[in-house]
Every structure is written in C-alpha cells, then in structure tokens.
Give the backbone structure.
Amino acid sequence: MHAATATGEELHPESFLDLKARLIESQGFVRQAENHMNDRSELSELQDNKCVELEERLASVEKEYEELLGRNLGPADVEEVKDKLAKVYSDRRDVQANLMTTSETS
C-alpha cells in the first residue's frame, strides 16, 4: 500500500479491508499472548503463596515438635535430636533445591 501511494496510484477499498483483517488477526494474537502471560503470572503467584504457607506451617510444626521433645527428653537427648533433625532438614532442602534446578533446566 505504501508503494502504491508513493507512486500516486489509487488505493482500492479491498486493500483497506485486507489491512483491517490482518490488523484484527494480529490484535487477536496479542490478546492471546497477554492472556497467557497473565495466567502464568497468576499461577506463579498462587504457587509462591502456597510455598510460603507451607514453609510457615513446617516451621510451626518443627517448633511444636521441639517443644514436645524438650518436655519428654533430657537436655543431652534434645541436643542430639536437634542435630539429627537439622541434618535431615538440610539434606531434604539440598535435594529439593537440586530437583528445582534440574526441572528448570529441562
């Protein structure tokens, strides 16, 4: 169309209809992409919120468990159990971090 107007040729109405159809089609693609990005953003936010909620719950359960152990075990036993739990949680977090890293690179 630009070339035709540059040379002074007359533009036909069909050219405008074709341009309009292509613009509408492009607009549809853009809207689809925006909707897809919004959906992914909402899903990511929900996952982040769930992760925070689970981490808070885990911390609460750990504290309750520690208090329970403290009431039923002697000080030396508590320290031994704490050390073992710390190692288990550390190992678990390492495995989870590795799984996250592996799934992101796949």
